[in-house]
Description:
The complex is a heterodimer of chains A (226) and B (1228). Chain A has 226 residues and is mainly alpha-helical. Chain A is 73% helix and 0% strand. Chain A has helices spanning 17-23, 25-52, 63-67, 74-96, 106-125, 131-149, 153-175, 186-225. Chain A starts with 16 loop residues before the first helix and ends with a helix. Chain B is an alpha+beta fold and 1228 residues long. In chain B, strands 1, 2, 7, 8, 9, 11, 12 and 13 form an eight-stranded mixed beta sheet that branches. In chain B, strands 10-40-39-38-37 form a five-stranded antiparallel beta sheet, with no helix packed on it. A four-stranded antiparallel beta sheet of chain B has the order 14-47-46-45, with no helix packed on it. The interface between A and B is large, with 56 and 86 residues. Chain A: Its main location: endoplasmic reticulum. Chain A: It comes from Oncorhynchus mykiss (Rainbow trout).
Amino acid sequence: xxxxxxxxxxxxxxxxxxxxxxxxxxxxxxxxxxxxxxxxxxxxxxxxxxxxxxxxxxxxxxxxxxxxxxxxxxxxxxxxxxxxxxxxxxxxxxxxxxxxxxxxxxxxxxxxxxxxxxxxxxxxxxxxxxxxxxxxxxxxxxxxxxxxxxxxxxxxxxxxxxxxxxxxxxxxxxxxxxxxxxxxxxxxxxxxxxxxxxxxxxxxxxxxxxxxxxxxxxxxxxxxxx
Amino acid sequence: xxxxxxxxxxxxxxxxxxxxxxxxxxxxxxxxxxxxxxxxxxxxxxxxxxxxxxxxxxxxxxxxxxxxxxxxxxxxxxxxxxxxxxxxxxxxxxxxxxxxxxxxxxxxxxxxxxxxxxxxxxxxxxxxxxxxxxxxxxxxxxxxxxxxxxxxxxxxxxxxxxxxxxxxxxxxxxxxxxxxxxxxxxxxxxxxxxxxxxxxxxxxxxxxxxxxxxxxxxxxxxxxxxxxxxxxxxxxxxxxxxxxxxxxxxxxxxxxxxxxxxxxxxxxxxxxxxxxxxxxxxxxxxxxxxxxxxxxxxxxxxxxxxxxxxxxxxxxxxxxxxxxxxxxxxxxxxxxxxxxxxxxxxxxxxxxxxxxxxxxxxxxxxxxxxxxxxxxxxxxxxxxxxxxxxxxxxxxxxxxxxxxxxxxxxxxxxxxxxxxxxxxxxxxxxxxxxxxxxxxxxxxxxxxxxxxxxxxxxxxxxxxxxxxxxxxxxxxxxxxxxxxxxxxxxxxxxxxxxxxxxxxxxxxxxxxxxxxxxxxxxxxxxxxxxxxxxxxxxxxxxxxxxxxxxxxxxxxxxxxxxxxxxxxxxxxxxxxxxxxxxxxxxxxxxxxxxxxxxxxxxxxxxxxxxxxxxxxxxxxxxxxxxxxxxxxxxxxxxxxxxxxxxxxxxxxxxxxxxxxxxxxxxxxxxxxxxxxxxxxxxxxxxxxxxxxxxxxxxxxxxxxxxxxxxxxxxxxxxxxxxxxxxxxxxxxxxxxxxxxxxxxxxxxxxxxxxxxxxxxxxxxxxxxxxxxxxxxxxxxxxxxxxxxxxxxxxxxxxxxxxxxxxxxxxxxxxxxxxxxxxxxxxxxxxxxxxxxxxxxxxxxxxxxxxxxxxxxxxxxxxxxxxxxxxxxxxxxxxxxxxxxxxxxxxxxxxxxxxxxxxxxxxxxxxxxxxxxxxxxxxxxxxxxxxxxxxxxxxxxxxxxxxxxxxxxxxxxxxxxxxxxxxxxxxxxxxxxxxxxxxxxxxxxxxxxxxxxxxxxxxxxxxxxxxxxxxxxxxxxxxxxxxxxxxxxxxxxxxxxxxxxxxxxxxxxxxxxxxxxxxxxxxxxxxxxxxxxxxxxxxxxxxxxxxxxxxxxxxxxxxxxxxxxxxxxxxxxxxxxxxxxxxxxxxxxxxxxxxxxxxxxxxxxxxxxxxxxxxxxxxxxxxxxxxxxxxxxxxxxxxxxxxxxxxxxxxxxxxxxxxxxxxxxxxxxxxxxxxxxxxxxxxxx
Lengths: 226, 1228
């Protein structure tokens, strides 16, 4: 069979190999997971640095060791958790059938990340009068973060659940003596941890959704083609 | 609710008025805002610059007590760091020594050798000084700061810096504080120099540390003009003992009196060092900044549809930044001093304030109707978004106010700044940004107008007749092509390589990055080589601890510079000057010297008396009081850091210096000489004291100047070379020969720039004498048919003309051609009466005679009746006429010839059914050419042999379109009927050969007809009234035949049984373009400018878009997009699945409508005398190939893409074959 306009139908209808790989569903999943994982690891390292750095000496500080001042397993754990969360959010959106439409832009995601880092910064650097104040402030900030960047019920629910689970697991770890908090104040630790976790979950969910958006676009394109 | 609505209305009205105001008076408003920004930022000038510079606090020595640790209530002036004992007290002995009188027998080295030699005796003196009073015996050993090891990485310095003992540094450390080493040192300067680090340094060097004064003030140099050597002996004391110090002072003063010294000695300065920013703190900071920049990037990327994207992005960023500055300024103005670390909270403030509002504003303004006035657009855009802006702002203010009530000071301060910042940001948005936006929109409108006017004014430009007047040179094209892109992802035009290189550099900012990398490397090297830097640290990790340093003697030298001064209580030393006369306490002197002051007492007094005129003047000035201020402010921290003592967030106290003046006699200087000293080239200026330096100075100056000049010349040369490389040679001259843009004058194989020569050059196929009417190809062969009815078959690979097929009755056309070439003949006789001409084309035999009569009459050339039997006559006639031009009256301008050509064409169309019509449609398959004539006759020609294989005259109405698929031919006729023919091949040998394997989808089996075959063409079915109106387009693919007609419908037929499957309705105008391919995608475009995509299987309309003003002239699809071109000279690229316009390309006026897709990403369009290649993915213009020299008059109307990545297009009476070699790889 020939076309009238010779030449127009000559090329291979399938896309280039790169696009083809990208549109492969599981591959994208892996890529997305990996990106989320690396973001999580990176944030964990940086934020951990925020917490530990104080009284830095004049001399070149032990950069490497202060970056890895936490135990080796903490960044991978954070990375894995963020990968799971980042994949879970779009998935749940999909399941619930209410796609997240609110502020789906990279700039808003970056804003969210910045606010998250800011919350960490505040918790690490600002001197609060007491722990109640600290935890209340952080809680307000976290809720504000959710309201500003997410506003979905599923996001809130998932955030709360994961934050509680994470707090519980850290407490378990502490009880089992895997690690200790420097501060003897037990309440202190417990108070800010869930808020930070919540904010982190919202942030990672935001990133994950944004990443998933790309895949959605590609997939829909492909199905249209088929 | 009503309140809310009323509020909303009011807000919107206010914004509307405001928008009008801003757009009406942009300049005054911008001036006003700039003024207010500056005014608000003014208080910032008073703020100390953030940094790690130390701060000072001065107290009196007299009543000094070590400050207590507890903050004491109301000592308001006292800085809060002034608590507890300092890290150390610094006592410096400032020595100024000179050989006097200077006489001509002395060599330059004498300037500093003996003065430096005195340091050892002084050291001895100091070290052995003992103060004994009632409370006990005190010596330096007891008071000084005891240091331990140097940092492990500083092994190199172990010989010069003290370890395990008092921190006492002086130039004597270079020689381990041993006089013998000093005396036996042949080259003092070399010794001093060998410890200097190589390269550039920012922090204190060892030389600074040991000498305690900046290098240029030491006077230790062969070319010293003043011949005064200055150095310090620096003692670092761990505890303060006023009595010991004053006894030491008195002792030294007594030994070496400084007559004219009036240094004040009553103030000590406490210097507090800020926390240094460590790498660990920097990382989170850098991260937040990276996030900030990503935020800004992603935000400003959304700005679109404006004239200058970057300008607006810059304006947005400026808005936010200046609002922050304003907020800080305002807060300072009202007495709030920022205590937060500005650098840390800054990114958060930006994020809180955000760029959203400006983006929303831009979007809203841009989305207002374009045809409104700018003022109104701005006003409307503002008022549209007013409500949401106000709502957002109120929300943010609320959130921040809530934050204010957390009662945490830091958060409160942050919130305060944020609130003020938000308000000032709002102010700036409303005034500054809106105005900038209005200016931008106005600019865009102007640019838009310029671009669009021609397109709108001359909308359907009269199709440039192929024979347009040539003497009127076409106006120079204003701009090549402008592309309107709607998605920001597609941008940037492809340009000549030279420019591309430059743009590439500019885009990737290579130079900038190189510089940045260079800077980073430099900083890295600095950090590495710095004595207190990374190398130390690394070396420390690698090497094991060294046991101990050698000499107990050692010292701390110098001082720090100061960034800002805290005016202490006694802030200005001058005010309290009178308190005590310096030599107040001579008492403790006697017992002080325990043992060895042998060297000291010798020469102090006698010399100073005898100062002759040549005596170098030793003067003490105010600058000596606090000489340490001239040192780097890293001086003290680096000294302490060598011993792993940090000064961060701590302070040291610097005691008033002890001045010591030494005068040495020339005799002593000569005695202490090293034998080698005299070998130094005696400065030829030895005797003129001061003159020496002046002579040397110009010398070195001239050397520097010469070097600078050479470097400058080199730079200029380099730039010149760069310029030559990057810029066209004749840039600026009116050199047309190489000017890039003068296409018309260029020969087709020389474009003025190199890349196209190597890449693409068109091959012109000449032979037709009139304009090409039909073009068909099957990949191997190429058939073209001109207005004269002549069909030529070309080899598509080589461009050779294989066959010339004259139509029947070619003589008629030959004559016309002859007449055309021979303009005068026609002009004088026949052209005056077009009707006559019309008659001439009528089929009647009589007319024919008449036609032939002219040349015969005039030329008396014997013209045999040229009927079918002599097909080759055309060229003959041509040559004949051409060879005798002089015998005719060349009166008429060539323009008439063009007119005539047009007339001929029109005549064909008007007199539709001549019995032997012109070829209106042609198809080529295998080696059979199917030609449909205006007479309704269908002919099959052998393409290779040029013989007529069969013909069918069943229809009467002219064949407007043909499709030839497999062995079927579909012909669409002018009356709207559709005929299906079957081509039967009866091979004598019975076998049908196929050129390709039958199953291949993209290379349709094209039967190869051999010349022995008997071919018959049967009308199998004729669909009368397939359409109500003439069929305009006919396409066939994938077993379907699709017709489009002027009756607004598209019909789909099955090829096998000629059965009409669907009638597709959806257009509101006649169908002008149809595309169908193997994948059953059907697209149609109509006169209404609409494009419909259909599902051929179900007959349903997939999408329907309006893309063009005026007819859609051409349609092509690729697997992912649909490309359409219209009469409005726009090429639109649509997403095939969603029907969304990806982008559009505005072409020049009258650029023609032909389109072709070479590969998935390569589009070719025909233009005025050129074809352009586009990258479909990005909308880049890859290349424009000009087909000929004088091409501007002729547009490319037909364009066929061949299999071998060549394209063929008509070009007046010529065909142009353009190979696209670079595409070959893509296809394969």
